[in-house]
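Could you help me review a protein record that somebody else here produced? This is what I was given.
***
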Amino acid sequence: MICPETTIPSSGRLLLSEGNSSVIALTSGEPSGVGLELAFKAWQKLKGSHPFFLIADRSHVNSLEQTCPVIEIQSPENCLGVCEHALPFLHYQFPTSSIPGHYNPENAPGIVGSIETAVQFALDKRIAGICTNPITKEVFNHAGRKNYSGHTEFIAHLCGEDCPVMMLAGRKLRVVPLTRHIPLRSVHQGISKKLLKQTLEISLQSLRKDFGLQHPRIAVSGLNPHAGEGGLLGLEEKEIIEPVIRDFQIKGENVQGPFSADTMFHKKFRKTYDLAVSMYHDQALIPVKTLDFYKSVNVTLGLPIVRTSPDHGTAFDMARKGKARADSLIEAIKLASTIQRNRIKNARSPSPTS
């Protein structure tokens, strides 16, 4: 049921006005997929411990078989006063209704609009960060944003950043793919010293600021089998990867590699680093999903705002069947809150003296 709106405590407004709130905005994502129903399951698990509100169309929320109480709020500031008792949602008008399991391109502007709204709330420091429900890749094309291949690139654009870094964080492994959603045949062309340098700089900064690691350790994979075998199986390691790693080592950073990707993810090796940087999408995502399929989280590094996402797709085949697991969404909301707390702590800590 939809509950009547309640009075918001002044303490909640104070937290938000200072930009120190723990409130996370959860975007609608694809309304015909599993995102909205997973929001219900996430609230049932988290309730007031990790406050969040959903940005979604009122009619889409009402069309779900509601497994928890929901309440419509008028602004992010209303969330803290009600999230212990019901799932708060902020109405965002979508063009049309949704049919479970069937993508409707007419709703693309609403999906993209809910992302833009959440990002603006975060940029305005009215919330702690955002968590994005899954979307289909064609959404941006249908919404007239053809230059973006996914959430990561689009949100970076909204934040004025041109080199976002995608991290997949699980309980046993963190990985960053140097190149993301490009054809495998194009990977060797997408790798460059500049991109690797930027990715490592952003990753080191995030491990310190977002994850609280004062002395982060990064392992870098090679591109070719056996990390190029000294140049016999490819020159990318010798000409691109090794020189960049040496530059970071000269600066005192614990960056090691390149390592052969077929050996760097076993249990003993994983204990030697905090983050693995791999050269392409599947090289990074296969190990993290194998180790922690249900609870790994997508995090965008290098942004002025906190952004996480569950590490799964829209799952049209499971929509409205009650079978989808909310583990990854729950972990994504919790990690967004943790990162924000770490950022606040880092900002308050005195800078080390030389």
